[in-house]
């Protein structure tokens, strides 16, 4: 016998199609048929007796002319009395049925606490007993369902699979009144077979199934006197399915937690690597720049100038990496001071060496001063002006400084006349190591805008990209806290 053939199938596992309703008697109500039967039982014997007497009298030739009408009158009176008595008897006999119908309506409405009492040992008494037993079973299953829902609500994936398995076994024992219960994960066909022996505890089982996948099986034993119907088995199957979903969620949660821990470890290792590389590069770059300046001062040479420019460029990239690590570790703290924006912009532009690019500075600050960290502001200005030169395609770069008196801050706008930023790149442009699609051919670390915005926010301001305008280039606005001339 192969392993799949050993599998003990539950008697309730296959659910047949609902049978056709059984039709009892003619298409008349029970009360109508009962009344008609009582009337017939009262009138038919008298009618037959009268017809027989009339036939005997007529055969003997002694028929009294008044006897026939008298018999017909008696039959009519008997019919009327029979109808009245039949109506009264039918109402009395159907009263228990009406009580049972009202009780069924109460059960349908959720009231399971009122049993029906019908005296005797006839069909009506057995019907009332069946109803009371059904109400008790429904009440018991409602309690089981409440316990099942409470157990499923308390199943949290954070506790792990082992905790869920142990807790689910305890919940199954409490909810279904089992003697013992066990959950086995794996192939249900490998679970031990439990035979149903009369007088011994009854076996119960349900497969832990998620969709078409079987995660395991729930096995338990019930008291020998415990009734176990199809509805009980379906409730157990619902409980097993809910536990299977909880177990699968716990497995996925454990996997995601492990992946998150691994990502955090990789991110920390990356930050350590960047920090170490940045510190190790800063010292030789400083030496290269210093020696290049000394040699250029002694004997001017274009090659020495290129060495100095490239070393300075690489030094700025290293400073960006250092700033990123300090931002993410929370170690960056701005040291605020009061500065004028226009001189800082001019000094940064001159240091950038963009003399071949037209430049316009429109200062409408009216004596307002920015409350910022000077070094961090220089880093932001350098990144924005450098981007405007590189991505503007040699077009004019303009800087406008104005005030927002209501908000108490300064606004610095850097604008170029290049192709601008594509709509597809706007959402990700301020991410780490991100650049727009049109700028992919340019050199750069992809950290300039990310670092600049984080620095602006650390100083109490922000860096935003203005909406795209047809025919216009990229427009970046730096928002910074400011002081009026009277305050300063």
Any idea what the shape is? elongated
Backbone CA Rg: 47 Å
The SS-based structural class is alpha+beta
User: What helical percentage do the residues reach?
Assistant: 40-55%
State the main characteristics.
elongated; alpha+beta; 10 strands; seven-stranded mixed β-sheet; 10 helices; three-stranded antiparallel β-sheet; disordered N terminus; 488 residues; single chain
Describe the structure.
The protein is 54% helix and 13% strand. It has helices at 3-6, 30-60, 67-108, 123-153, 161-176, 230-298, 302-329, 341-352, 374-391, 448-458; strands spanning 180-185, 202-210, 213-222, 337-339, 359-363, 369-372, 397-404, 409-415, 462-465, 475-483. Helix 2 packs antiparallel against helix 3 (67-108), helix 4 packs parallel to helix 6 and helix 6 packs antiparallel against helix 7 (302-329). The radius of gyration is 47 Å and the shape is elongated.
Describe the protein's topology.
Blueprint lengths: L2 H4 L23 H31 L6 H42 L14 H31 L7 H16 L3 E6 L16 E9 L2 E10 L7 H69 L3 H28 L7 E3 L1 H12 L6 E5 L5 E4 L1 H18 L5 E8 L4 E7 L32 H11 L3 E4 L9 E9 L5
Parallel strand pairs: 5-7
Antiparallel strand pairs: 1-3, 2-3, 4-6, 6-10, 7-8, 8-10, 9-10
Structure, briefly:
With 488 residues, the chain is of the alpha+beta class. The protein contains ten helices and ten strands.
């Amino acid at each position: 016998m192969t392993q799949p053939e050993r599998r003990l199938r539950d008697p309730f596992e296959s659910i047949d199609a609902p049978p056709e309703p059984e039709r009892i008697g003619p298409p008349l109500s029970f009360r109508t048929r009962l009344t008609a039967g009582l009337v017939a039982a009262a009138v038919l014997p008298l009618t037959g007796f009268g017809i027989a007497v009339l036939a005997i009298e007529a055969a003997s030739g002694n028929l009294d002319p008044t006897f026939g009408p008298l018999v017909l009158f008696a039959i009519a009176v008997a019919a009327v009395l029979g109808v009245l008595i039949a109506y009264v008897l039918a109402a009395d006999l159907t009263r228990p049925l009406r009580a049972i119908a009202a009780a069924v309506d109460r059960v349908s409405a959720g009231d399971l606490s009122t049993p029906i009492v019908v005296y005797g040992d006839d069909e009506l008494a057995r019907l009332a007993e069946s109803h009371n037993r059904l109400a008790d079973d429904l009440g018991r299953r409602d309690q089981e369902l409440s316990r099942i829902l409470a157990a499923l609500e308390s199943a949290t994936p954070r506790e792990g699979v082992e905790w869920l398995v142990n807790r689910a076994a305890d919940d199954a024992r409490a909810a279904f009144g089992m003697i013992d219960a066990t959950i086995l994960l794996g192939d249900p066909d490998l679970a031990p077979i439990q035979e149903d022996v009369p007088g011994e505890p009854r076996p119960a089982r349900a497969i832990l199934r998620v969709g078409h996948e079987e995660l395991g099986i729930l096995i338990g034993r019930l008291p020998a006197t415990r009734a176990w119907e199809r509805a009980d088995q379906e409730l157990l199957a619902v409980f097993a399915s809910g536990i299977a979903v909880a177990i699968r969620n716990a497995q996925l949660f454990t996997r995601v937690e492990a992946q998150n821990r691994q990502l955090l470890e990789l991110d920390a290792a990356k930050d350590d690597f960047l920090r170490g590389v940045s510190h190790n590069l800063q010292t030789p770059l400083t030496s290269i720049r210093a020696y290049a300046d000394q040699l250029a001062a002694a004997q001017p040479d274009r090659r020495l100038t290129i060495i100095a420019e490239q070393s300075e460029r690489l030094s700025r990239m290293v400073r960006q990496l250092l700033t990123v690590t300090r931002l993410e570790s929370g170690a960056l703290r701005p040291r605020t001071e009061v500065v004028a924006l226009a001189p800082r912009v001019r000094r940064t532009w001159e240091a950038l060496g963009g003399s071949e690019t037209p430049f316009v500075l429109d200062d409408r600050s009216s004596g307002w001063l920015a409350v910022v960290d000077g070094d961090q502001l220089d880093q932001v200005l350098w990144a924005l002006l450098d981007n405007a030169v590189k991505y503007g395609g040699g077009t004019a770069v303009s800087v406008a400084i104005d005030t927002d008196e209501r908000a108490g801050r300064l606004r610095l706008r850097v604008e170029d006349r290049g192709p601008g930023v594509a709509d597809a790149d706007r959402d990700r442009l301020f991410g780490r190591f991100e650049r727009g699609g049109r700028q992919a051919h340019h050199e750069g670390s992809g950290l300039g805008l990310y670092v600049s915005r984080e620095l602006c926010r650390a100083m109490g301001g922000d860096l935003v990209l203005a909406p795209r305008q047809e025919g216009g280039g990229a427009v970046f606005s730096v928002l910074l806290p400011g002081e009026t001339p009277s305050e300063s």
